[in-house]
């Protein structure tokens, strides 16, 4: 019987260290990670996205996750976890926050896709400006974090809040991931 790949998703508002955490976790566990597709998409198309673009982004994220699982299964270390930088919950919250609605196809995919652990990054790190980030205001970031937390409470997968310094975040994320790998 084939052992399934453990999938750990790192989510949270922008500029909370998700990509850095995924990269560090993948290095620690000697595995791979799936990059956030939205960044790649917006780098190519610009930041003038529409509601319809969010479904395209969701499809790209799904494709990246599926390719990550396939790559990991094909390696000698196919019992290692797969770390995923954001998932469809992020696109759902983004869509609802910006457009006050979310495509039903995204909502349906959220119910279908299976994960083993969510690591929800808190907004307690300083906001770092880049070309794609939109919400530097601390009150907006806290509001978005609350939306993520509500989404986590409403789903069935184990989830943990990650906060503190980069070092503390990584140590906690390693511990939480190790717990589900046992």
List strands and helices in order, with pairings.
Layout: E1 7-11, H1 18-28, E2 33-34, H2 37-45, H3 51-73, E3 82-85, H4 88-99, H5 104-112, E4 117-121, H6 138-153, E5 159-162, H7 166-181
Parallel strand pairs: 1-3, 1-4, 2-3, 4-5
What would you note in describing this structure?
It is a single chain. The protein is globular. Helix 6 (138-153) links the parallel strand 4 (117-121) and strand 5 (159-162). It is built from 7 helices and 5 strands, in the order βαβααβααβαβα. The protein has 182 residues and is α/β, with parallel strands linked by helices. The chain has helices spanning 18-28, 37-45, 51-73, 88-99, 104-112, 138-153, 166-181, and strands at residues 7-11, 33-34, 82-85, 117-121, 159-162. A 5-stranded parallel β-sheet has the order 2-3-1-4-5, with helices on both faces.
Salient structural properties:
182 residues; globular; five-stranded parallel β-sheet; 53% helix; alpha/beta
């Amino acid at each position: 019987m084939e052992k399934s790949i453990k999938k750990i998703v790192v989510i949270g508002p922008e500029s909370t260290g998700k990509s850095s955490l995924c990269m560090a976790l993948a290095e620690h566990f000697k595995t791979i990670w799936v990059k956030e597709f939205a960044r790649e998409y917006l780098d190519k198309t610009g930041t003038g996205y529409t509601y319809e673009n969010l479904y395209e982004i969701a499809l790209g994220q799904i494709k990246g996750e599926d390719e990550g699982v396939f790559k990991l299964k094909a390696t000698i270390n196919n019992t290692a976890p797969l770390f995923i930088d954001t998932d469809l919950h992020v696109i759902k919250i983004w869509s609802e926050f910006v457009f006050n609605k979310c495509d039903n196809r995204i909502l349906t995919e959220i119910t279908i896709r299976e994960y083993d652990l969510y690591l929800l990054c808190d907004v307690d790190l300083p906001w770092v400006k880049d070309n794609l980030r939109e919400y530097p205001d601390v009150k907006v970031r806290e509001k978005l974090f609350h939306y993520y937390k509500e989404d986590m409470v409403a789903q069935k997968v184990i989830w943990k809040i990650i906060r503190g310094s980069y070092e503390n975040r990584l140590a906690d994320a390693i511990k939480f991931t190790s717990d589900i790998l046992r």
